[in-house]
Amino acid sequence: MQTDVIGAGAMGRGMAALLRDAFPHWTVRLIDRDMSALTAAREAWKCEILCTDQPQQAELAPVVICAATWPVTLGVIESLASRATRGLLVSISRPAAEDVPRVQQALIQAPRLATVLPCGLEPGLTEILAGYLLESTEEVQSLRICCGGIVVPRPANPLGYKRLFGTSHLPLAKRDAYCIRDGALCVVPRFSDVQQLAWPGIGVLEHWHDGMQPRLSEHPKLSRPGVHADQRTLRWTRYVELVALLDQLGVLAEDAVDENTGLTPKQLFERATQRTFGLAENEQTKTLLAIDLAGSRHGRRSVQGLRLTFTDRVDVRSMALATCLPVVFLVNWLTGAGKAVGGFHYPETIITPQIAPVMLDWLARRGVEITMDRCDDDAEEGTAGLGRRERDSVPSPL
């Protein structure tokens, strides 16, 4: 079998490395326009390479994984669909909301081309595991998802932050974020409602509203009155406080300050702090995912907490592991048994709650630290304490 990975950035290189591990007999080809990045990847992981800025025009493998920008991914999907290609395409990039119908329309021409997107840490793993917990709870009261990548120990710079994606971009833009309040989809400001979370072995972190996929509001257990759900980003404490200060000083403004270059204050700040926020080779990162669900099961109040910790490997950073491992599992699941799947899919419609425990066991065997706490309160007897508490290293099947 042959697979093509489009994009030789940090995620694409990590994807190529993990595919080589998972499928030692497959041919893995990395495609990008940057020859230096391709050459380094070929030397490190013995993958094949193709240097081009027009991947949609190439003769692509039966399995294609896009770790490129959304416009590049969209071009590849439409090109494959126009040729009525048969195979599998998985993308880690988020589609623009207005482009989803365009993708679905294009795939009508290629009913045997399965397209799964966006699939990574978030979106992807977050929705898969949220669905897993929701399946085991009869009545839901609240769902909270927190995830993020951090450097351990805390970096010395004021934000306590380093870039984990290898780009110059800083995630400081002010925008709206989705959440569910009383069973209805709502919009709240990003960086709002700052709270803290103690992570064992790491320390106290903060989290705030950010990034929930609006399709979660369509889940029947989350669309009932009285249900609340949100998704948050994890960082070292004081991050939001300093972002607010930078915003007040005008540093994050998006209006051009130089008519000749069109540069904005935010872009100038990103350039000026390249070294400050750049990740050094000797720094260790961890990528964390926490999902907490409160509700009831079997007549008792139930609280479940799932924790995943991804730690750097020698050759792949933790954020690339958290992003790419779900893709590799999905590819393995769909190709391993020759499952006939076509059309457009979100990851959680492929990796269903019944399959999620298999995925968690697979991740644990690849070095991901996974724990689950389950606490059931005997509501029928009216006891004040917790009637039962379980702690599992890997969650069991439903």
From TrEMBL:
Region (Disordered): 379-398
InterPro entries from the UniProt entry: NAD(P)-bd_dom_sf, Sacchrp_dh-like_C
Biased composition (Basic and acidic residues): 387-398
Gene3D superfamilies recorded: Dihydrodipicolinate Reductase, domain 2 (3.30.360.10), NAD(P)-binding Rossmann-like Domain (3.40.50.720)
SUPFAM superfamilies: Glyceraldehyde-3-phosphate dehydrogenase-like, C-terminal domain, NAD(P)-binding Rossmann-fold domains
Domain (Saccharopine dehydrogenase-like C-terminal): residue spans on this chain: 120-368
Pfam families: Sacchrp_dh_C (PF16653)
Protein's name in the database: Saccharopine dehydrogenase-like C-terminal domain-containing protein
Natural source organism: Bradyrhizobium niftali
